[in-house]
Every structure is written in structure tokens, then in C-alpha cells.
Amino acid sequence: MNGVELDTATFLRPAWLYAVPLVLLAWVWWRRRGASLSGGWEAEVDAPLRPYVIESAAARRSGWSDWPGHALFTGWLLTLLVLSGPVFERHEVPSFTAPASTVILLDLSRSMRSTDLVPDRIARARFKIDDLLGRGEDDRFALVGFAERPYAISPLTDDVRMLRTFLRSLSPDIVPVQGSRLDLALDHAVELLRNAGVENGSVFLLTDQSPGERDVAAARRAASAGYRLSVLGVGTRDGAPLRDADGRFLTREDGSIVVPRLDTDGLERLAAAGDGRWSALTSDDTDLRALWPVRGATEDGTAALSASGEPSTQRFWIERGPWLLVPLALAALLLFRREAEERA
């Protein structure tokens, strides 16, 4: 709840108070100098003329003739007080953090047609992305499909319904050139986050590929740029024979059947290079619960929650000292006018 509360008086910039003794010493010196000057003239001026040209001792003691000087030193002291920032009130306001920003990278290489996961890897990956979108109600997501090259399906957005519409059409059949360049996909995710002005985002990679050194290097680049990598391995260690569109087994040049297996060790190494975590895809939400904590918030946007689940707040000092500048400015104008009149 917003409100103003009284607190112990303090100074935001106390270093300015160190100049107060200097001002007081200057005032004492000025007073003594004025007294010595007037006292010295009494020996030089004839007695009949002294009342007209030398200030009397009574007038000096009263100090009324020196009020411009006193006002000047008082103004300096008040100025130092304003600069030191005296405060005694705090205002309580909600604390805000930004929605987390995540780029989802979906592998669309031909191996994602493998049926070691039912009905196949690509279908299970799409289901998992749908679950991921459901977890981030206030978050922003971008969707990128990749094979030999990355293809941005959607920039960062909080429109989950639109992302789910795009998600249904993603399959290996839509990419023009097959392959699986993880490094290019990771670099593209970093570019999307940078262009959106995100300083601390995350990358969520769903793939069944075995990472190479260039992929690990790309993960390190992403981490050094402030973007953590979560890796979800799609498939099993044993794999399953891969079939083409006609249902025939795909074979290599030596005649062996292609059986894409999940390289769990390589994917774990890739996630570690990206300062994140990895998990194999599961039928429940165990995988998402393992990967979700690595995501972070960025700029101001949505209210942060405290440990109790309530919106957290911060207290800010209310500085009212600058209001003293108004009478100081008026006093300076009056002194300036008096001096101008005396010269005239």
C-alpha cells in the first residue's frame, strides 16, 4: 500500500556539511576585520567628525548596519543545508520487474520425425512448447524454427494465442534445406534479444542433435552476452529407425539404417557452456520444472512478488530541502536591489 511514513532524520549527501565550519570561520574573520577597521579610524579622524563618518560602538554591537553581511552568511549556511539533502520522510511504492523474455528454438531437422517418442519427436516438442507458453502468462516469447538455417517465426511477444497458432504448422517439411546448425540458431536468438533491447533474457532450445565445438562456442557467446541457455533433449538414447515420407527406412551410403540417438552428454555440455541446464523431454512437467528456474527478469514492467506472494515494495526518501531555494532566491533579489539603489 502506498503511503508516507516518518523516519529518523538523515542526510542524503552529508559531505556538504563539512563546509559549514569554513563558513563560520569566514563569518568570525569578517566580524573581527570590521571591528578592527572601525577602531583604527577613531585615532585618525577628528572628534567632531567621528559621529558622522564612523559607526558607533552601540551600532556595531547591535549589528543592524551589518545585516546584508549576516544575510549572506546565513544564505550560505542554508545552501549547504539544502545540498546535504536532509530527509525524514519515506514514500512506499511497489517494486517492479520486467516480464521475462525467452527465445524458443525448435529443431526442424528430419531426425525430429523419429518415432522413439510417440507419435514422433516433433509432435512431442510442439506439445512441450505449448506447455511452456502456458507457464509464462506475463512473459514474452519469440519463436524460431531452424534446420540448416534459422527462421524467425515470431519476434518477442506476449500474444500466446498467436504463437500457438504458428506452432501447429511447424514441421521438418516446411524448411527448404535440411541440416541442423545449432550455432546459427543460437546466434540468431542472441540477435533477436539484443534487437529487442533485452539485457538479461533466456534461450530455450529443443533439439535432438549432437552438439559440436562450434555449437558449444555459440552457447558461450550467448552466456557472455547475458542470455542463459536451457536445453531440452527430444528423443531417447536408443532412438528409432528414421523413415522417409513414403514410410521407407532412411539409409546411409554404406546401407546402414539411420537411427538418430539422443546425445545426452553432448547436450548437457552445451547447456553448461550456456550457463544453463539441460533435461530430456518427459511425459509430465518434470523437465520444465527443472529448466524453469534459469529464466530471469529484465527491465521494469510487472510487479515483483515477495516471498509471501504479495507484491513487494520499496521505500524512497522524500527530499523537501530544495523548497528552501525559493526564499533564498527572493533574499538574493532583495540584496541585489538594495546594492543597486545604493550605487545609484
Overall CATH class of the largest domain: Alpha Beta
CATH topology of the largest domain: Rossmann fold
How many distinct folded domains?
2
How many E strands? Answer: 11
Rg over alpha carbons: 38 Å
Backbone structural class: alpha/beta
Oligomeric status: single chain
Which spans have pLDDT < 50 for at least 5 consecutive residues?
57-64, 296-309
Note down, in words, how this protein is organized.
The protein has a six-stranded mixed sheet with strand order 6-5-4-7-8-9, with helices on both faces. A three-stranded antiparallel sheet has the order 1-2-11. It has a two-stranded antiparallel sheet with strand order 3-10. It has two domains: 3-91 and 321-343, no CATH class; 97-303, von Willebrand factor, type A domain (Rossmann fold, 3-Layer(aba) Sandwich). 39% of the residues lie in helices and 19% in strands. It has eleven helices and eleven strands. The chain has 344 residues and is an alpha/beta fold. The protein starts with a strand and ends with a helix. Helix 1 (20-41) runs antiparallel to helix 4 (67-84) and helix 4 (67-84) runs antiparallel to helix 11 (325-343).
